[in-house]
Amino acid sequence: MNFGKNVKQERKKNSLTLEQLAERSGVSRSMLSQIEREEKNPTIQVACQIAEALNTTLSQLIGEQERREVFVIRTAERQMYRDEQSGFERHVLSPSLPSNRLEFILNVIPPGQESGIFPAHKPGVKEYISVAEGKLTVCLGAGDVVYTLAEGDSIFFDADVEHRFANKGDEECRYYLVIDSYGKKL
Predict the structure, then answer these.
(1) With contact defined as beta carbons under 8 Å apart, do 36 and 7 qualify?
(2) What percent of the chain has pLDDT over 70?
(3) How does pLDDT run across 159-174, given as a tens digit for each residue?
(4) For 24, phi and psi rounded to 5 degrees?
(5) Measured in Å, how far apart are the chain's first and last C-alpha atoms?
(6) Cα–Cα dist 175/163, whole Å
(7) Does the keyword DNA-binding apply (predicted)?
(8) From CA 101, how far away is CA 95, in angstroms rounded?
(9) Which fold has domain 75-180?
(10) Which CATH superfamily does the domain covering 3-66 fall into?
């Protein structure tokens, strides 16, 4: 594994000193120096902190980008959260990995129900939505910006504002959501 060499290369590519990377990552300068010289192998948590501070993924730092992984998530095996009061369902369609900054989700809202308010994400996080079935009402901010989408419609927005989703129709609403955290500001 070339983790240390890749950290050093990425740090220099970003024109960062060891001190600056230490400040951004919360990992001491001496520890970073030992990692770059490959004298020390960091814990997964520390490695993730370094990757986040360098605005890259852990997979890229350990050189896994050359190996292509395939994940199959069967319907019966995927993670799902269901709000008992509203019936709102969130099905996770992408693998949950610490280095994954992209989430692919299927949300299902019963007729006359809503998601509740989602808090603002950090600046740089974006959301992409495509309605597969039914009608979806998207409320951004304090509800002052509202969009109504029909089957086949899509919307994209900077998700650094409160947002909620509602189904004001008479049939179930199913929509796909992609949360992109690659541009997230630290």
Answers:
(1) yes
(2) 92
(3) 999 999 999 999 999 9
(4) -70, -40
(5) 27
(6) 15
(7) yes
(8) 10
(9) Jelly Rolls (2.60.120)
(10) lambda repressor-like DNA-binding domains (1.10.260.40)
